[in-house]
């Protein structure tokens, strides 16, 4: 998903940590605070980045339902703060001003920054509370990658946020375009995929491309997904250096370089690729599972579109990026923190997460959601929703280390430099890896 680099205000927010000192960790809510009972009406502000429908309407409707049915006097007030970048900037400003919302919608790398500023509440005591927590069966029902991405090794492996708007990196394929090119099945390996991209591309007599095989993207998450699907990893085991600058990352850049130079791939303006894919002008696009409703809305005539994991180095062991933002609880008082947890917990219940998936097109966070009739009915009408759901098991979280926000910008610049012919894949990935590792060193 599109996220930009850190803004200068972060330096001001984190200045209190002092040079050469260890950043303060989030203070874990004591067991007594997690076990208390609500004593009266509580109003909670939720800052989020869902700026358009169907996601915005789905969240607002879910909040209305919670407010009407919780019977604990809790009122959630959702406030749109612009896209993820604007929300991030406003939250940094709120930290500096000491005027925080109780809940904030955030990516892992952003939660890491907020935690360094000392404002994030550890959710482990709430999850494990005998009074207000989740029992073992309920915890195990939530997909493990969704929990894993919200645990931060740099902060004692504590649970500092909770799965909220989760999605996956997938390959969208127009099977009608492939069929017209003599390709009868969705490619499973990268070699098959590159060949299919070339076959699906159409050029006129002058050599100009009139139908592309692949729509590229400058979003770092999809580079990460391709590296994983090539068999590589994003970070070294100790999280102190990147690993995407190895042979798999280079193979990704070299493959894309061939496709761009040959006129088989292009980088679209905005969301033009959705129209191209939906109208038979494009064979493949990598995007989030949450893109599905917008692609479907762009279909003017029947198109056989399918959703799969990206092609793989080893199709028997598929891997892709699991991403999407989470929800973090910011420090307030015990009553507000418990009320915030009650909403987080409710939103992740089986019935709610299944309903959420049908209305927002984000992924349900629980395995048991697949047993809910509302989700089964949705999949009957939209089988691509089930195709996306089936990729969850292959998903791996992106890094949640400090500095990752800046590293995403490094990856984007690397990608653009290769696709525009300003650098070779070899030089671009070497330079980018050095920059990324320097960022990580500065954020240890």
Overall description:
- There is one protein chain.
- The chain contains 20 helices and 13 strands.
- It is an alpha/beta fold and 444 residues long.
- It folds into two domains: 231 residues, Periplasmic binding protein-like II (D-Maltodextrin-Binding Protein, domain 2, 3-Layer(aba) Sandwich), CATH 3.40.190.10; 196 residues, 3-Layer(aba) Sandwich (D-Maltodextrin-Binding Protein, domain 2).
- Helix 3 runs antiparallel to helix 16 and helix 17 crosses helix 18.
- The longest helix is centred in the last third of the chain and has 18 residues.
The name CATH uses for the topology of the largest domain is D-Maltodextrin-Binding Protein, domain 2
Number of strands: 13
The low-confidence parts are 1-30
CATH homologous superfamily descriptor of the largest domain: Periplasmic binding protein-like II
CATH class of the largest domain: Alpha Beta
CATH architecture of the largest domain, please? 3-Layer(aba) Sandwich
Helical fraction equals: 40-55%
Q: Number of helix segments? A: 20
């Amino acid at each position: 998903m599109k996220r930009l680099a850190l803004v200068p205000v972060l330096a001001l927010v984190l200045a209190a940590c002092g040079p050469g000192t260890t950043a303060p960790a989030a203070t874990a809510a004591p067991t007594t605070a997690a076990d208390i009972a609500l004593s009266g009406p509580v109003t909670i502000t939720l800052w989020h980045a869902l700026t358009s429908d169907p996601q915005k309407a789905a969240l607002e409707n879910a909040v209305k339902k919670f407010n009407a049915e919780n019977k604990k006097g809790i009122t959630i007030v959702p406030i749109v703060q612009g896209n993820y970048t604007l929300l991030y900037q406003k939250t940094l400003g709120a930290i500096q001003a000491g005027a925080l919302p109780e809940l904030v919608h955030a990516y892992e790398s952003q939660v890491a920054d907020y935690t360094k500023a000392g404002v994030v509440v550890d959710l482990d005591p709430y999850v494990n509370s005998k009074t207000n927590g989740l029992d073992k069966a309920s915890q195990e029902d939530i997909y493990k990658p969704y929990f894993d991405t919200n645990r931060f090794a740099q902060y004692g492996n504590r649970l500092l946020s909770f799965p909220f708007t989760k999605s996956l990196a997938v390959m969208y394929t127009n099977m009608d375009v492939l069929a017209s090119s003599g390709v009868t099945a969705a490619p499973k390996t990268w070699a098959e995929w590159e060949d299919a991209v070339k076959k699906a591309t159409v050029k006129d007599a002058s050599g100009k491309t009139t139908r592309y095989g692949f729509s590229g993207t400058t979003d770092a998450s999809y580079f990460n997904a391709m590296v994983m699907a090539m068999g590589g990893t994003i970070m070294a085991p100790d999280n102190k250096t990147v690993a995407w600058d190895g042979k798999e990352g280079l193979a990704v850049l070299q493959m894309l370089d061939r496709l761009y130079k040959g006129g088989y791939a292009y980088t679209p303006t905005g969301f033009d690729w959705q129209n191209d894919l939906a109208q038979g002008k494009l064979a493949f696009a990598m995007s989030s599972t949450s893109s599905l409703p917008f692609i479907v809305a762009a279909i003017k005539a029947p198109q056989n579109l399918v959703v799969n994991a990206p092609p793989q180095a080893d199709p028997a062991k598929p891997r892709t990026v699991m991403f999407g933002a989470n929800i973090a609880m910011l420090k307030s008082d015990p009553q507000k923190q418990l009320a915030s947890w009650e909403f987080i917990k409710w939103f992740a219940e089986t019935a709610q997460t299944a309903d959420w998936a049908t209305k927002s097109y984000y992924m349900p966070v629980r395995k048991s959601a697949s047993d809910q009739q509302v989700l089964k009915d949705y999949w009957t009408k939209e089988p691509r929703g089930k195709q996306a759901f089936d990729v969850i098991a292959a998903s791996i979280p992106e890094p949640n280390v400090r500095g990752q926000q800046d590293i995403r910008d490094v990856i984007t610049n690397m990608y653009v430099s290769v696709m525009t012919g300003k650098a070779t894949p070899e030089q671009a990935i070497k330079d980018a890896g050095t920059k990324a590792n320097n960022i990580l060193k500065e954020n240890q």
